[in-house]
């Protein structure tokens, strides 16, 4: 006999099944876009930025930490807000790369700082260069590196000395304001702005206006992450424009004259993406406001929930250039921009090494320090040598090179000879010219391998082995100490990404994953392309020269006519 179920337990089957299987749509997690999701902080970085404007840490450094020392600095200032003033703690010496991922950050960190001096457009007077040299000698154990973003980095800085360093820098018009942090970083500018004979337009007024109006402005001191800018008026497109958040590249418009082609959304690191043209023409007068509009789009719509998705490139990838342009015009400029042509692809993106005529009949001389490593003494000597040859101006390049401007024809040879004696060659081998390296394990807490000395050794070995290397097709070699790509792994013919690798004896040793075939736009390859990882292709740090030699000689042997490495 079947016992009837009590009415109370006879729940209707349909509604029950519906409850079990058809859930209300799950709310997608907010991306932290201020204009869409509100400004409530979604991670600790966002919290500390909102708690106190990171720019305000300067007062605490001057009034407290410089007096009371390293141990008085709380964590959010030390590891967060200090960056807004160009200060990072450097790596404790002697900790090998195998322990980078296993130690706590404070165990990796030294009580000294890297200090990044911001040099918009890479433009320095000899007085400014001598000031940086003096700071290096007095407070930085003589250290100095030219970076691939036209900055100079000093090491071994103690917090007690920072106010005096700022005083010296600011007395000659330099600063460390927003040299790091979630802000508009240094503006890359053509190293030969205003002087090159073949320049289309001088972008210096635009760089100066942006610098004066908005660098250090609290309205832009809390971006989702860093914001990188570049602007060039030189036809060689010498500011690696494809890998910046925003770039202005000089172009001739058939009716409107010379202005700029606007690119947005480039960036490398572990999710590389090339910038895209918005298809607009920007007049020189409009350029500062367009820059201001794009940086505010990033501030208001940029993703803030996840740090590794917080660059502008992710927003551009989701929106596409057409929507990005529309938002820029409708919400930020209040007017449409004219359509514009693309700038012609240059023969080679300019590094300005060598001797070149200026528009005023004098010459500029570009020289190659090995992988950007110089010193306070060398910088002071460059200032002396330049002045002795009638020049008061130098420029830094996005390729870790240095350019002396305004040299009279009859003084060029002597200048070249004296710079050469400092290790700064105006006619370097292709390897010395086209190799760059990031900071690496010597100072960087994220590094897995050494880079600067490793690259310098490889350059010397390659020069010895390959003899007249200038006869070879130029090949770029970019050496990085970890996957973060500060030395642009993916835009080199041969990009090296630092990691531990297994050597022939089965031991774990410092080495590199190889990326091949990357490059920025030039006639060789027509358009920029990101290098690709070759599965399983790794080299040990000691084996770089062997590997490059094999690649170069095989390529030269098999090359079909003018075929380039990228092809
Ligand atoms: Fe440091 Fe890595 Fe950047 Fe090199 S690429 S400077 S190791 S974070």
How would you characterize this protein structure?
It contains 16 helices and 20 strands. Helix 10 crosses helix 11 and helix 15 crosses helix 16 (544-558). Strands 1-2-5-4-13 form a five-stranded antiparallel beta sheet. The protein has helices at 13-21, 34-37, 44-51, 57-68, 75-79, 105-108, 126-139, 162-171, 204-214, 287-301, 312-333, 376-388, 412-421, 430-434, 452-466, 544-558, and strands at 87-91, 109-117, 123-125, 143-146, 152-157, 184-189, 227-232, 246-253, 257-264, 276-282, 354-357, 363-367, 373-375, 393-396, 402-407, 435-437, 477-480, 494-502, 508-516, 532-540. Helices cover 30% and strands 21% of the residues. The chain has 567 residues and is α+β, with helices and mostly antiparallel strands. Mean pLDDT is 92; it is low at 1-20. The chain binds iron/sulfur cluster. The site of iron/sulfur cluster has 12 residues, from loops. Residues 1-41 are annotated as: Disordered. Belongs to the nitrite and sulfite reductase 4Fe-4S domain family. Catalyzes the reduction of sulfite to sulfide, a step in the biosynthesis of sulfur-containing amino acids and cofactors.
């Amino acid at each position: 006999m079947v016992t009837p179920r009590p009415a109370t337990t006879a729940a209707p089957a349909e509604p029950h099944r519906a409850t079990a299987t058809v859930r209300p749509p799950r709310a997608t997690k907010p991306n932290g876009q201020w204009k869409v999701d509100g400004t409530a902080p979604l991670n600790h970085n966002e919290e500390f930025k909102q708690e106190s404007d990171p720019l305000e840490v300067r007062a605490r450094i001057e009034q407290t930490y410089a007096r009371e020392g390293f141990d008085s600095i709380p964590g959010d200032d030390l590891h967060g807000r200090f960056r807004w003033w160009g200060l990072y703690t450097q790596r404790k010496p002697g900790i090998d790369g195998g322990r980078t991922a296993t130690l706590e950050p404070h165990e990796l960190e030294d009580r000294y700082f890297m200090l990044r001096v911001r040099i918009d457009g890479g433009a320095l007077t000899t007085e400014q260069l001598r000031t940086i040299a003096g700071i290096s000698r007095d407070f930085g154990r003589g250290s100095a590196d030219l970076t691939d973003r036209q900055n100079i980095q000093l090491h071994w800085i103690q917090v007690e000395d920072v106010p005096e360093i700022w005083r010296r820098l600011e007395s000659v018009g330099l600063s460390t304001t927003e040299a790091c942090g979630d802000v508009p970083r240094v503006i890359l500018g053509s190293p030969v702005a205003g002087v090159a004979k073949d320049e289309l337009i001088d972008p210096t007024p635009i760089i100066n206006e942006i610098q004066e109006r908005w660098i250090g402005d609290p309205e832009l001191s809390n971006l989702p992450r860093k914001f990188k800018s570049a602007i060039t008026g030189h036809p060689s497109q010498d500011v690696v424009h494809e890998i910046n958040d925003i770039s202005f590249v000089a172009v001739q418009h058939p009716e409107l004259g010379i202005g700029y082609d606007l690119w947005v959304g480039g960036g490398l690191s572990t999710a590389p993406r090339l910038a895209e043209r918005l298809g607009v023409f920007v007049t020189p007068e409009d350029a500062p406001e367009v820059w201001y509009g794009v940086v505010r789009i990033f501030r208001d719509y940029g993703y803030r929930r996840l740090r590794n998705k917080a660059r502008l490139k992710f927003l551009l990838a989701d929106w596409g250039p057409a929507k990005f342009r529309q938002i820029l015009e409708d919400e930020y400029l209040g007017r449409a921009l004219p359509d514009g042509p693309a700038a012609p692809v240059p023969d080679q993106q300019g590094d300005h090494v060598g001797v070149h005529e200026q528009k005023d009949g004098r010459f500029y001389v570009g020289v190659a320090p090995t992988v950007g490593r110089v010193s306070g003494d060398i910088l002071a000597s460059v200032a002396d040598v330049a002045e002795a040859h009638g020049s008061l101006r130098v420029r830094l390049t996005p390729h870790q090179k240095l350019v002396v401007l305004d040299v009279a024809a009859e003084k060029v040879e002597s200048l070249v000879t004296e710079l050469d004696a400092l290790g700064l060659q105006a006619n370097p081998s292709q390897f010395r010219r086209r190799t760059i390296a990031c900071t690496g394990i010597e100072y960087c807490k994220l590094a897995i391998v050494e880079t600067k000395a490793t690259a310098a050794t490889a350059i010397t070995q390659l020069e010895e082995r390959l003899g007249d290397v200038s006869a070879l097709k130029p090949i770029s070699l970019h050496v990085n100490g970890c996957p973060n790509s500060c030395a642009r792994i993916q835009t080199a013919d041969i990009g090296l990404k630092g990691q531990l690798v297994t050597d022939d004896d089965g031991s774990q040793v410092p080495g590199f994953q190889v990326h091949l075939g990357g490059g920025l736009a030039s006639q060789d390859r027509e358009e920029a392309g990101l290098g690709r990882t070759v599965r399983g292709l790794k080299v040990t740090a000691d084996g770089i020269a062997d590997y490059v030699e094999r690649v170069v000689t095989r390529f030269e042997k098999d090359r079909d006519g003018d075929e380039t490495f990228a092809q």
